[in-house]
Write a structure and sequence with these properties.
With 170 residues, this protein is of the alpha+beta class. It has one domain: Nucleoside Triphosphate Pyrophosphohydrolase, CATH 3.90.79. Helix content is 21%, strand content 34%. The N and C termini lie far apart (68 Å).
Length: 170
């Protein structure tokens, strides 16, 4: 019994990965061309304040797990921008602390296909309200998970560390 061999299929042309793009243009790391974003670690207490849960969500483009984050907003302080992103992207409001709990870096794919190293300052938001109707509803999946599970889901190593070590009042 002979088997028919399929002819080799041509691979569709793929855009280089973020790391490949950065490797082709390493000067981006040394020219001061870092971008700035602000993010929110949204948390709540579950089961009579015994356990902390952190909100993670999928990104709109790739579906990977992230936390709410965005660009600076004119006339808003960094912690206020993080709070606004949490509301628009996940429909949560709460008490935001003015000082960041840390920062992480990642490579942001820009709309024009370019890649930009990005620094993200992270702010703690104690969630007091969650709504079903928000700006990006239907574009993301939301999940309340333990800090350890949140760390497992996200990709960025420095963010993983912030999440696994998260303490509500640290």
């Amino acid at each position: 019994m002979s088997r028919k061999q399929k002819p080799p299929t041509s691979q569709p042309s793929r855009q280089p990965s973020l790391l490949q793009q950065l490797a082709a243009n390493p000067e981006k790391l040394f020219t001061g061309s870092f971008r700035q974003q602000y993010a929110a670690v949204c948390f709540r207490f579950h089961a009579e304040r015994r356990h902390v849960e952190i909100l993670v969500m999928t990104s709109r483009d790739s579906g990977r797990w992230v936390i709410p984050k965005g660009w600076p907003i004119k006339r808003k302080k960094p912690h206020e921008a993080a709070e606004i992103e949490a509301w628009e992207e996940a429909g949560v409001k709460g008490h935001v602390r003015e000082e960041p709990i840390g920062r992480y870096t990642y490579l942001k794919m820009m709309d024009d296909g370019d890649v930009a190293p990005t620094i993200v300052d992270v702010f703690r938001v104690k969630v007091t309200k969650q709504t079903e109707n928000f700006k990006e509803k239907g574009q993301r999946i939301l999940a309340w998970v333990s800090p350890e599970e949140a760390a497992r889901r996200v990709r960025e190593i420095e963010l993983k560390s912030l999440l696994v070590d998260f303490r509500p009042e640290n």
